[in-house]
Amino acid sequence: MITLTPRTRTKTSTGGVLMTDGVPRGPQKLRLVEPGDSGGRLPIRAADGLEREVEYILLGEHTAEIGKYDIFTYAGSRWEVAALMHDNGWEKRGLVVRFD
Question: Are residues 99 and 74 in contact, defined by beta-carbon separation less than 8 angstroms?
Fold first, then answer.
């Protein structure tokens, strides 16, 4: 069971970015799976603007609520959904990076 907290990304007047946490969603039954053989690293730009390596794909049923920039804590680490994968109609999938 994972509780995702949605975040809103807003540009500031000075050109920076402000990430604002929203109200956490209810706990959901989600799975973290390794992305498989991508021929090496699978880099992606995270909300903080840094390029990070995708470590997991977050999987949920088609009714799961998963959004880009959602954050959660798992196994003592902080994680972010850096991107959503194409909706295939039967499951929701997000690319996940770690912030440690």
Answer: no
